[in-house]
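From the shared-data thread, chain only:
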Amino acid sequence: MTDPTGDNQEGRYTEALACIERQEHDEALSLLDGLLCDEPRNPQALYARALTLIAMGDYRKAGCSLLRSIVLDSGHVPALSYLGFVQLTLGKEEAALKTLKAALEIDPGHVEAWCVLGDVYLDLGEYDEAKEVFETALRLEPENPEPHRKMAMYLVSRGDMKKLREVCQTLAVLDPSMAEQIQTLFLDEQ
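Structure, as tokens:
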């Protein structure tokens, strides 16, 4: 016999994910909070709640949901990666470094964690480390536009317009909108 409560919980979770996709954040949060009232130890619902809160700009609450999710599922690398992002956003660079390094120990191929780690190094003014981390992300996923965007950010911070042009050419294929923004903001006048 199936559990009708379980089916209802799965349905609420699925609907919450659909709301997140449609950027209906208040509705998603309401569904997830209801689900968590019934099942407070659901790491997936806590993770989805955190993503919703990040989209709403409530980083402190997002961090709390991520921490609870990680306590329940310590190997969930995306949750660790987002926690590192939240910590960076809240100005806690050292905590972000620790969190992101822990994520990469679990999954050294997680490109998003490498990209956020590079952001942390940029914020700390550790440019050589940032470059190395972004290069690692590029090696792992050369067709992913995010590492290229991060490398562009690094090159802007270093004033290397020659290499920025090269990255911009690659981005013209992978992310034309970003390539156009970079061209307009940093390369047109040169």
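The longest helix spans residues 4-21.
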